[in-house]
Design goal:
This protein is α+β, with helices and mostly antiparallel strands. 42% of the residues lie in helices and 13% in strands. The protein has a four-stranded mixed sheet with strand order 1-2-3-4, with helices on both faces. The longest helix is centred in the middle third of the chain and has 24 residues. It starts with 9 loop residues before the first helix and ends with a helix. Bound molecules: zinc ion.
Amino acid sequence: MARIRSKGTRPELQVRSALHRLGYRFRLHSTQLPGRPDIVLPKYRVAIFVNGCFWHQHRCRLGRMPRSRLDYWVPKLNGNKRRDSRNYRDVKTLGWSVLVVWECATRDSRKLQTLLQMRLRTLVVK
Ligand SMILES: [Zn+2]
């Protein structure tokens, strides 16, 4: 099965550098967890998925379903979404938190940093 998430994409690099600026220590591409999260914060048991808006069907401009070859795209993209939900659920079952960062939220590095700071603050409080 082809991986729909490739390593070291620009959005992922943006997230990594924002986390670095925020002082979080992280590891990449955990093969231990379902769906292989792009980034994990082992100390806080947070799994971060950096999702391309198209492949993971974000409800934004980038996530629009193509207008042609619907017989191909609809099942494929819906399958991706189903697999995502299953992975998130399985990761949570193992006692980890899931943080999804969408590609469209990584364009502005300052906004991204604020977003991560806020989201992580709620996740890492013990
Ligand atoms: Zn998006």
